[in-house]
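Lecture notes, part 5. Sequence design as translation. It can be helpful to think of inverse folding as translation between two languages: the language of shapes and the language of residues. The source text, in structure tokens, appears below.
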């Protein structure tokens, strides 16, 4: 599998998060509009989930609230992603991209002047499962907190997609 762009990773994670809570694209659009993103319609969600439209940082935060997940979960690459390709064509292997998202810094990323030097695979190192577990724990906490305060304002408990 070829490395994905970060936009493709984000799009896939948004689509998967929506599927986990079983709501439709129209519901996501309505909730975005409720947060003030008035241009969001079902087609906006579809374009975002296909990677044809890149959400802003503010929209990613709003989507994390709507999808009962964390920004970290939406941004984290999976091992199956192989790597993240930048517009220059340079590729950052998935474990380095994941470590950066999970607050582990650039881990080995170096610069020669203004040219990036990407690290190869770490010697005898693997990304600890605890990092992925931490993202899952945050998702669980968000779900419990959401259940404790009730349904989304303006929504109903039986809203579906």
């Amino acid at each position: 599998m070829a490395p994905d762009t970060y936009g493709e990773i984000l799009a896939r994670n948004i689509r998967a998060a929506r599927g986990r809570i079983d709501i439709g694209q129209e519901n996501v659009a309505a909730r975005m509009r409720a947060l003030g993103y008035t241009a969001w319609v079902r087609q906006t969600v579809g374009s975002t989930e296909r990677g044809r439209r890149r959400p802003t940082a503010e929209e990613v935060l709003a989507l994390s609230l709507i999808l009962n997940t964390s920004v970290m979960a939406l941004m984290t690459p999976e091992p199956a992603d192989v790597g993240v390709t930048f517009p220059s064509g340079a590729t950052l292997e998935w474990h380095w991209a994941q470590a950066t998202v999970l607050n582990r810094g650039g881990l080995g990323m170096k610069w020669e002047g203004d040219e990036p030097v990407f690290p190869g695979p770490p010697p005898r190192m693997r990304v600890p499962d605890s990092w992925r577990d931490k993202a899952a724990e945050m998702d669980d906490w968000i779900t419990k907190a959401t259940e404790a305060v009730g349904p989304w304002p303006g929504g109903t408990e039986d809203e579906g997609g």
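The translated text above is only one of many valid answers, since several sequences can fold into similar shapes. DSSP finds seven helices and five strands in the chain.
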